[in-house]
Amino acid sequence: MPIDVEKVRAALAKVQDPLFGKDVVALGYIKDLLGDGDKARITLKLPTPAHPHKEEIEKAVVAAAKAAGASDVKLEVVSEVSTKMRPGGDKMAGVKNIIAVAAGKGGVGKSTVATNLALSLRQHGATVGLLDADVYGPSVPTMLGEPDVPPGQQTGQKITPAVHWGIKVISVGFFVERDGAVVWRGPMIHKLLQQFIEDVEWGALDYLIIDLPPGTGDAQLSLSQLLPITGSVVVTTPQEIALIDVVKAVSMFKKVEIPILGVVENMSYYVCPACGHNDEIFSRGGGKKLAKELGTLFLGEIPIDAKVRHGGDSGRPVIVGAPESEHAKIFMSIGAKVAGEVAKINGPGGGTGKRAPGLVQIR
């Protein structure tokens, strides 16, 4: 007996997306709904391939269609990353969302988080770029290893970014000697970052991750002037001194009206590989407490582990070097949560080419 398509649609209208608190029909997720005898063919379109509730929604859609009379459901899931702006106007017309990764102080693993965040979004299926804006300590080239495609430049043309593990990457580390020090004043940093924005052929990207230098200095101010950043991820360790500096970084983002997407607590605890005992070397829970005080999302705890350190040193980040490890799964979860927060800022309907509310450019 042929299924009643409208009955199936009514059943789907009861399936909620927890991210928005609305049903998938109202959100426009159901792009196609066809009857094929007693079977249903559904195309589900999500606002990001890294949707944090993707599997939950897929299962609920299939269950709802079967409950409405479908003997079987052929479900196709597609995605189109939402955006409310074209960051930088013509400078980066193909980049949908810019995510800054920041820390109040050095040594908390900010670059490790930025690198693995970019790779996690790529693993989820998004197109991703990584801009290493840590001019004085560009560690991203070391963490990513030898590029699959090296950066290049032709006379009179734009710089082509390097490609590592499927993501486009640019860093001052590509253009200075490995042991050379970058001794520049603020105006020179501003000019370099402007060149990385205007003269690099980034192409079409769902997300551009920016690894900011620690603190609240020239690079952060320059980028807030040059780009409408969608939101920021703040990295901290659990101890009090790190949290004090994070509050300063958060204050900076508030002043330039950049939303905080969430807080990551790195080096949360150490798990003994022999006995499995957890040792909270730097205390634990400070990041979660800070996120609660800020009214923002706590994105996750990353324990201390030699796999993460070795991955960064060897040029094979844990998310590609040990994809089945617990650390890789944590980073994948963090990536999904960040993508979800970006989708909430943009709304589920996708891009209009307009600036997101509350994002202002400092002049």
Protein architecture, described:
With 363 residues, the protein is an alpha/beta fold. Helix content is 34%, strand content 24%. It has eleven helices and 16 strands. Strands 6, 7, 10, 11, 12, 13, 14, 15 and 16 form a nine-stranded mixed beta sheet that branches.
DSSP, total strands:
16
Strand proportion: 15-25%
**Radius of gyration, whole Å:** 22 Å
- Please state the overall shape, judged from the principal axes of the Cα atoms: globular
The number of distinct helices, counting runs of at least 4 residues, comes to: 11
Note the main sheet: 9 strands, mixed
Mean pLDDT: 84
Structural class: alpha/beta
Outline the low-pLDDT stretches. Answer: 351-363
| H-E order | HEEEEHEEHEHEEEEHEHEHEEHEHHH
Helical fraction equals: 25-40%
Termini separation (Å)? Answer: 65 Å
Protein traits:
globular; 363 residues; nine-stranded mixed beta sheet; three-stranded mixed beta sheet; alpha/beta; disordered C terminus; 34% helix
Brief account:
This protein is of the alpha/beta class and 363 residues long.
